[in-house]
Design a protein that fits this description.
With about 150 residues, the protein is α+β, with helices and mostly antiparallel strands. The chain contains four helices and seven strands.
């Protein structure tokens, strides 16, 4: 039962990643984009309007909301919800995931117009290092248990 609940929790938390369209960029690839919005124009189903100087352009994923006149999708940068992504540089982006189906509901009313998830290269590297550390800790714990069992015999 515990395994089932744990599996259910993991699937719930990773549901957005499982249903979205995540595109990982090649880290060696030179970027030909000047802003993150130029990068978003290449994503399927994303329409980026013209931007003023230093302001956010209108971005449409699912059209205009019926509850309000808000059209902007929810932006999530490295797990943090933000309203403005003009500070992001295209060369710092590791992956972009656009969620426009029912899985955006996991973000509540804020995700009603879709969700755009950015993962930066530094966050991807941190996740990789954390996974390696966890693997090393599990291995050390296994070795300690084996040594304890040998000691008891």
């Amino acid at each position: 039962m515990k395994r089932f609940l744990l599996l259910l929790a993991v699937l719930t938390l990773s549901g957005a990643a499982a249903h979205g369209q995540e595109r990982v960029r090649d880290p060696k690839e030179k970027t030909q984009y000047s802003t993150v919005f130029d990068l978003l124009r290449n994503e399927p189903g994303v329409v980026v309007g013209p931007a003023g100087t230093g302001s956010m352009p209108k971005i449409f994923i699912r059209g205009i909301s019926t509850n309000s006149d808000q059209t902007q999708p929810l932006f999530v940068v490295d797990g943090i919800i933000t309203d403005d992504v003009t500070y992001l540089q295209p060369e710092d982006i590791y992956s972009i995931e656009v969620i426009k189906d029912g899985t955006a509901a996991s973000y509540g009313m804020r995700g009603q117009n879709g969700v755009i998830i950015f993962k930066t290269k530094s966050a991807a590297e941190s996740e990789r290092r954390l996974a390696e550390q966890q693997k090393e800790m599990r291995q050390a714990a296994r070795e300690a248990r084996r040594a304890e069992r040998k000691k008891k015999k």
